[in-house]
Amino acid sequence: ILNIFRIPHVDLGLYQFADNISAIFHIGSSSILYVMVPHYMEKLSSKNISIEEFSKKFFSLFIKWFFVLVFYLLVVFIIVNYLFCEYIDSMYFVVALAFQKYLLLFLFIPTVILTTFSKEFIAIKCYFFAVLLLISFQYLIASCFTDAIFYMPLISICAIFFLLFMLSRFYVCGKFDVA
């Protein structure tokens, strides 16, 4: 999407650098979660753990994982500050995109629950709607502001919160039936 808009190459480069740095955190964290998925899907489907217990367990894990993110960002800041001084201006993007990718990890909770109970279509509809909304907002912002690239991570963060809200309401509000 960023290539469609007239974004200065310097800003685009800083954004890409920050996206790559934040992707390291996300890929590492996602890999750890990926290893846990079969175990917890089995526990959920056999009712050895309730949806509420599963949600609380991983929500508390993700809250604790925030400190890992902060430590990661401190290490990145030190490395960029001393080894890649020309990229110091990318730190806003690094923090915003890392936080965005941290929030994406929370999607693990409703996605595993919905997949375990064969309700993937609910997740697909929510993802489709959120992506459509996200692209529309990003296009609107990019066409109205010359410094639109600075708003892109914030729009994505809002879209992730919206998506989490949409997915979680299916099992928090009783609209999700596992029987």
Structure description:
This protein is 79% helix and 0% strand. The longest helix is centred in the N-terminal third of the chain and has 37 residues. The chain has 179 residues and is mainly α. The chain is flat.
Low-confidence stretches: none
Give the averaged pLDDT, no decimals.
82
Helix content: over 70%
Query: Could you tell me the strand content as a percent range?
Result: under 5%
User: What is the element string, with H for helices and E for strands?
Assistant: HHHHHH
Short description:
It is built from six helices and no strands. With 179 residues, the protein is mostly helical. α1 runs antiparallel to α2.
List keywords for this structure.
179 residues; mainly alpha; 6 helices; flat
List the helices and strands and how they pair.
Blueprint: H1 9-45, H2 51-83, H3 91-106, H4 108-116, H5 120-144, H6 152-172
Helix pairs in contact: 1-2, 1-3, 1-4, 2-3, 3-6, 5-6
